[in-house]
Specification:
Elements lengths: L7 E5 L5 H12 L3 E5 L2 H10 L7 E5 L4 H14 L6 E3 L5 H10 L3 E3 L1 H62 L20 E5 L3 H13 L3 E5 L2 H13 L6 E5 L7 H11 L4 E6 L4 H10 L3 E4 L5 H31 L1 H15 L1
Parallel strand pairs: 1-2, 1-3, 3-4, 4-5, 6-7, 6-8, 8-9, 9-10
Length: 349
């Protein structure tokens, strides 16, 4: 457990100010190591860099003007909201005390009136408050661990349940020529599924042969509209599409628009753009869209290109599967997840 005893103090104010000199003497006599700084930012740095539980107490000379007092305290709390500053004022007026409390002072001490006994009592209160805060933090950390363990168990249980339900549906599905053999997002040990959109039939056929030989399930389209239409139908059946390879120049909607529409139902769909040229504007648009890369035609090294596509498709397949799991779990347990998010926010506040 970190120490909660106060070993040092940082005083914010001018060294020559009467209040600073008075509280510095009282802190020193109480056995604290005292540092005097002129700006709240310097005190904040000392708090942030100190070990947990051993932060110095911070005393701020608030002078005799309520507005100045509030400003000095606010300057510290803006940098370190948990600082709990001690306001120091000689012969404080009621207005000054009120301004200090409203600004966020945790304690207010008048060195002339309170003396050594008042400082010791104040340090005892601060030490007690720190002890309670550390106890609360331990309880909060324990509670957070319990909540996170429960959530992880829930996710593991739901994954198994989703996989079992999927296998049962697959087993119950009647054997019929009208039933497609397209793999779904949850099929185990499936190969990645690729959409190829290329209006040049010769190039499309060549790429399909190479991609299929590499073990990728490949669907080819000569235009973006057909690709989007089939992708929407497949999305409705949770049939897998992991990566799209789309020619930039297409009849009808172009490659960029095709990718945008393909992602309407599959926001994380990985995509390559094929083009015979590259320019800054196209590259910028593609980067904004989040494509994983460009394929320049003619293909200089087709085997290397296919290997690159396969690697990206395999990675995308894992992301697709994970996304599908999370979406299903979210749909089933929206109330639990909502309460979990609220609880985490309460724990962290």
């Amino acid at each position: 457990m970190p120490s909660v005893a106060i070993k040092s103090a940082v005083i914010v104010g001018a060294r020559t100010a009467p209040g600073v000199r008075a509280i510095a003497d009282l802190f020193t006599n109480a056995g604290l190591a005292v540092t005097i700084v002129e700006r709240a930012e310097q005190a904040a740095a000392g708090i942030v860099t100190a070990p947990d539980g051993d932060q110095p107490c911070v005393a701020i000379d608030v002078g005799d003007d309520p507005a100045t007092a509030a400003g000095r305290i606010a300057a510290l709390l803006e940098s370190v909201p948990s600082a709990a500053p001690i306001a120091v004022a000689l012969h404080a007026t009621a207005d000054l005390v009120l301004a200090a409390w409203r600004a966020g002072a945790a304690e207010l001490i008048d060195p002339a009136a309170d003396g050594a006994a008042g400082v010791r009592a104040m340090l005892d209160r601060v030490t007690h408050a720190r002890r309670e805060r550390h106890t609360q933090r331990r309880h909060v950390a324990s509670l957070r661990t319990i909540v996170e363990d429960f959530f992880r168990d829930l996710v593991r249980t739901e994954r198994r349940s989703i996989d079992l339900e999927h296998r049962l549906k697959q087993a119950e599905r009647p054997s019929s020529p009208s039933v497609t053999d397209v793999p779904t997002d949850l099929d185990a040990d499936r190969e990645p599924t690729v959409f190829l959109v290329e209006d040049d039939a010769e190039i499309a056929n060549r790429l399909v042969d190479e991609l299929e030989d590499a073990g990728l399930v490949t669907f080819a389209f000569l235009n973006g509209e057909d690709a989007v239409r089939d992708a929407d139908k497949m999305a409705a059946k949770t049939q897998a599409i992991d990566l799209a390879i789309v020619d930039l120049k297409l009849p009808g909607i172009d490659g960029l628009e095709t990718v945008r529409r393909l992602r309407a139902k599959r926001p994380g769909l990985a995509a390559f753009l094929m083009t015979g040229f590259s320019d800054v504007e196209t590259a910028t648009s593609a980067a904004d869209l989040g494509v994983v890369g460009f394929v320049l035609k003619p293909f200089d090294d087709l085997p290397q290109l296919i290997a690159r596509i396969k690697e990206q498709a395999q990675q995308a397949m894992l992301r697709t599967r994970e996304h599908h799991y999370l979406q299903r779990i979210k749909e089933r347990h929206e109330k639990v997840l909502s309460r979990y998010r609220k609880l985490v926010a309460e724990i962290e506040s």
